[in-house]
Amino acid sequence: MSGEHQREQVILEGLRRGDEASLSELMDTYGGRVQAVCSHMTMTREEAEEACHDAFLAAWRGASTFRGESALSTWLYRIAINVCMHRRRSEGRLRKALSSLFEAVSGGRGLVATGGAAGARAGPDRIAEGREEMEITRRALQKVQPEFRAALMLHEWQGLSHAEVASATGVPVGTVKSRIRRGRRALALALRQRMGRRDT
Question: Which of 34, 37, 78, 100 can pair with 168 through a Cys bridge, CB separation 3.0 to 4.6 Å?
Fold first, then answer.
């Protein structure tokens, strides 16, 4: 048993006992990833924070139902997605996953890194443009049907395999592949529409 798996088991055992310290450890370990999932499934930061909070509470209350058939993180993604979908509300790690698609629909300009060395080399106007492009992408993503958005985001941004996305979303692998394809097409269309409005 790996060290990570052992840690997961300790956390789970604590959650099943109703141990609040275990909930805190769960949030410390996976909070960033779950918050990120919620951020791209909701419209505002406040909604994302509320959804993230609800997801961890649901995990705490439902720990006894987790059978260990998937990774703990995959189980948490499933809970977070279900919370966001139930609420009916549908930047830069997403930048890398969506950069090639944005480049294809925006005349080859791509998305501009706004931090690190790349950001340091970019002038203020270019950084501002990159932020504007990211905002366009974020808003376009909200136009994608939630189940397509979830599959696309988990696969291309979180890096989950098709099988892992299937486990997280509760649908067959074939459905996951279809949703990813349709999500890409829908996102490309939404980006083209937003880019057209910006240029007019």
Answer: 78
